[in-house]
Amino acid sequence: MAMLEVTDIRTFYGNIEALKGVSLTVEEGEIVTLIGSNGAGKSTTLRSISGLNSPRSGSIRFLGREVARMAPQEIVSLGVSQSPEGRHCFPRMSVRENLDLGAYLRSSDKAGIAEDMDRVFDLFPRLKERERQKAGTMSGGEQQMLAIGRALMARPRLLLLDEPSMGIAPILVDRIYETIAEINRQGMTILLVEQNANYALGVSKRAYVLETGQVALSDQSAALRENPDVQKAYLGT
Ligand SMILES: Nc1ncnc2c1ncn2[C@@H]1O[C@H](COP(=O)(O)OP(=O)(O)OP(=O)(O)O)[C@@H](O)[C@H]1O
Ligand SMILES: [Mg+2]
Question: Which of 166, 219, 172, 214 is nearest to 194 (CA)?
Answer without folding.
Answer: 166
